[in-house]
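Instructor's aside before we start: the two examples that follow are unrelated to each other. I chose them only because their records fit on one page, so don't look for a connection. First example below.
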Amino acid sequence: MSELWGIARFKFHEGKLEEFKRLSAEAMEIVRTKDTGTLRYDVYLNDDQSECVVLERYRDSEAAIEHASNLGDLFGAVLATVTVVHGELLGEPSAELREKLAGSEVPVLFTPFLSM
């Protein structure tokens, strides 16, 4: 199985930045203590802290599925703090992960074309 990268982009509802930060800290603790195959999980804020980008890297599709399961309902709470959500998944997901993503507009899947 191959590694996967996730890129999520959020724009915050007015007045929801602190709630997003609190929820992100909870998510980070879950990732650190429960995820076994998450290799990278970074949250970046723009200068005025109105938007963020989350970079995620997983050992394989199973690790990405585990991550989603571990975050569970917390992800819904995070989504309630944002107005715009964009996401990309980069790599070759397993049939199981493809099935779980079927019908969803986020994330958009990009498979390898050229790689070093």
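Example two begins here.
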Amino acid sequence: MTLSYRFRWSWLVLLLAVTPLFAQSMPLVALQALSKQSYMVQGDLGPASTSNRGFNANAGIVITDKAVILIDALGTPALAEELLASIRAMTDLPISDVIVTHYHADHYYGLQVFKQLGARIIAARPALQAIGAPEMAERFAERKVSLSPWVDESFRVIAPDLLIDRAMRMQLGGAWFGLIPAGPAHTPEDLMVLSEADGVLFAGDLMFAGRIPFVGNANTKAWIKGIEDLIRAQPKVIVGGHGPASLDAANDLVFTLQYLKHLRATMGAAVQDLKSFDEAYAEIDWSRYRGVPAFDAAHRRNAYNVFLSMEQEALRP
């Protein structure tokens, strides 16, 4: 039976019960311990670039008694190879599954490395539409230039082997995980992953910690609702798609929440006042966000995308 949106969040609250250990920041593509079995690698806070080799997103690693479960695969095959080497320094257990939180380039371009090892790829069902969208080819063309030589013609899109339609519990590598579709929000295919043994929640890009979010074509209204539900769920440890893990989800989620609300309020007012985007953007005081990482790379484009979406919302009956 398909779980309602409200019930899937109530179900998440019931599963979040264990307080895990935590770790300090580590070097590039090195595992940070979150608990005895859960780890993460933390990408740079800026946009993907040659200086960070495309490593600007996080990935999660859960080592069970029988296998390694990955959450996302980083932004290039080369980075995925480095992630694999870091995992192999800790364990020889097979990598049985890779769960994709969403199909943005910085999170899935390393999938082919793990697929070649026999890993099963798991994603929410809307991922099928995402991988067939024209934007995929456009992003690949851009990445071949901006992230050369780490992205080249050897890259290939890896489709999911298993599609998730509803919130559910699944046993992977002998351990139980909660898989929670959360889209449409940041993307239609948003998928969160809860490691039940230690209460670590991998939230994908519903949470950006310490940097300006990337809005893209997000449903910001639903994204805000998703963050509010996450705050009420009170996860012990939450790992977003970007930035450090958080032991204080309510506090650390507030930045993304307030940023999205501010964009919707200011851009919505501009639409109601029949202002052009350029006019509105120039008039608004953005000083509270100007010093935050990724502001120059993402903020104006975020504001424009929200402006367009608010125009569409204004036209609806």
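Residues 1-7, 17-27 have pLDDT under 50 and may be disordered.
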